Structure prediction request, 275 residues.
Amino acid sequence: MSPGALSKSMKQLEHELETKLIIPAGRGLAITDEGREIYVSGQSLIQEYERFLSSTKSAKHQDRPLRIGSFEVFTTHFLGHALQSFLPDLEVFASETTPGEIESSIIEHRLDVGITYAPVPHAELDFLKITNFEFAIFGRRDLFWRVPFLDLPFAIPITPIRGFPANIQGLDAWPEAFSRRIKYRFELLETALDAARKGLAVLFCPEFVIKLQNESLKPEYRLTRLPSPAGMKAVKQSIYLVKRKSSIEDQNIKKLARALRSIVSGGANAQVYQS
Prediction:
């Protein structure tokens, strides 16, 4: 610092403190008694500020758990694959919740990011569209391939959702314009999948889920895409990552987005048999 800049800074400090800190002493300068008192008492403030800077830098570089909220489609049937292939070194806190609750948990800082295909808009949140996927009917080919549609025993989710398009019945995105035979209502998707594997039911769910679970099943338990009822168009949804507008889109969120694009898009090739 140049002498002129130092002199200007000292005068500014004296003005802010309303106290004379330095006085001429011969050919040099001397610190006033008030200046010495301020110097002594100011040491604790400087030390506290240095501790604050140190803790801030440490927290910035410290690996923290990424708190992710979603529903079972993603926490059970996507997240494990994503951590293995894209985020192997990341510590994760995963919470299974519902549309609406995902958004409120992020706003209240209980979660960092959400994965959803049923977004509930909020002014404090960003919804980053990642990719699309398709729902279809799945069941055991050996048991249900030639069964008329209205005789198929569906297993559906119990959980109601709010904020979804009006033409969708529930969490499994079934179009309300088409009636179906509902035999089972389950809280968990995994329970419905187990019933389908055992040949007790069929279900309407994302194709990528079936592909992921078929990879670890014996051929006789794998599920096949079954024909849709006449006139029913493809049911497609978009996947969104949800975050606070005030939070930075860091590398972990970007890796999570890449995992969704890769795994979900790859899941669009679930095996479909032709009659």
